[in-house]
Write a structure and sequence with these properties.
homodimer; six-stranded mixed beta sheet; 135 residues; 4 helices; alpha+beta
């Protein structure tokens, strides 16, 4: 495992488990692009992606990383948890840039009921974020 | 990459791209367990999992593997494709047994519209399979 990926994983795990939006933001490149579980169109930019990630890790309870794969700057991190009463399994596919920050992140989860419930719980909080940001 | 994973990947890619249900079945352990994208409860046993995989690879068009990660007997294979007009991204998380056959397979896809459409198209064909198998 290259040292950059190892360092990244320590900081990433700390931020995720602390549900620390600022800590997550510090690991994102300014031009980060995220493929969220419900949508095909990508979410762009550090501020929005950090907010979305922060809300997701607040919404998923018992969040635990399982298997992880590292191939140079490309990472795959399996996780498990719950949203409400729905158990879920998911994966983070992460690309690190040369400075060790995330340039691309794709998140997939199963099963469908957990995906739908996550969207229903996260969506209104993102709307609230955009409305506040627009003030 | 251990030689067993490399051999496995050659056979797996060949069977997936040929949409060859028998070729897929030949790579599954008898007691294989699959976590399908829509459901939490696992699908058990070589015959049923092979049938489901065969229908999935017939239903997803433009099926193309992208990034892949190998960590001993644990593999993560990213893919892209379409179901109907919906573009999709997915991941196969695969565990190989000591004989090089798949003992565990989890599949996750995004976005939600592709997941729903895939379930709607695959489900009736699995029902048909079970009805025929019961004859």
């Amino acid at each position: 495992m290259p040292i950059d990926a190892e360092d990244f994983l320590v900081s990433w795990n700390r931020a995720v488990h602390a549900r620390n939006t600022e800590g997550l933001a510090a690991l994102l490149a300014d031009e980060v692009s995220m493929g969220a579980p419900p949508y095909w169109n990508r979410i762009e930019g550090k501020a929005v992606v950090a907010q979305l990630l922060g809300i997701i890790v607040e919404t998923i309870t018992d969040f635990t990383y399982r298997r992880q794969w590292v191939n140079g700057a490309e990472l795959a991190l399996e996780f498990e948890g719950h949203v409400g009463d729905c158990a879920l399994q998911g994966i983070d596919l992460i690309t690190l840039g040369e400075d060790g920050l995330i340039t691309r992140l794709d998140v997939m989860i199963r099963p469908e009921n957990a995906l739908v419930l996550l969207r229903e719980r996260v969506g209104p909080r993102m709307v609230e974020f955009f409305e506040t940001a627009g003030d």
